[in-house]
Task: structure prediction
Amino acid sequence: MSGSGAMPGDDGPQLDPDVLGVLIGLGDHRPGPDYIPYMVDLWRDQWGTTFAFDEAWVTNRVTETFQRSYRPDGAYRQLVAGAGSPGLWDAQRSIKQPALIVCGSADPVFAPDHALATAAQIPNADLWLVEGMGHSMHAEIWTELTQRISALTSLH
Result:
């Protein structure tokens, strides 16, 4: 779900240009009344197919985030900082601890191929591909996620 640290230009999987456009769009300077529905639609597009879209919960999260700290320039700063950071693709091979790579089969941001490649890079990685999940960590998987993390950490 979260990025692996691999950036465009690394030898690892590349971001789809359409995905990069979505990420850049996060820096959209829409006013609140327009921005909140835009972000809810973005969440909907990234939700996946297995779990019912909880529009009330998402709208609440987006509204709270907007009210707490609406800083559209922050998205641009984050993209620039990421693009200027050294790639971590090769460094992943040196990870010694067990790792759990979680990815939704319907993730439009980091496709399953990216998760497969990341898991192959890390010597002790387990891959959990959640059928139909998009780019959101759904509450429906939290119990199993906790169990998987507990099992992985009990090994060491």
